[in-house]
Specification:
This protein is of the alpha+beta class. The chain contains 4 helices and 3 strands.
Length: about 100
Amino acid sequence: MPKHKNQQSLGEALQEFIAANKLQKGIDEVKVKEAWERLMGNGVNHYTQSIALRGETLYVSLSSSVLREELGLGNSKIIAMLNEDLGREVVKKLILR
């Protein structure tokens, strides 16, 4: 069905609304938290105290120093997994505390 001059798809209208109201940052933070929980599993989530996305940096507080060291070794792989799950590059840096 052809579009008329001032018609747009629901997806386009939603993206326009998100951009106009500057909601993308909040949406990204929620999606990153969900992706972390889904990808890391129950073992890591048990030790995860907080997750915060500031700009393109993801800060994750862990209660286990051993787990923090182990995850730190796979830092770039975790970033790649998160971004792949999100469908675009949201996280460029991961800081484990």
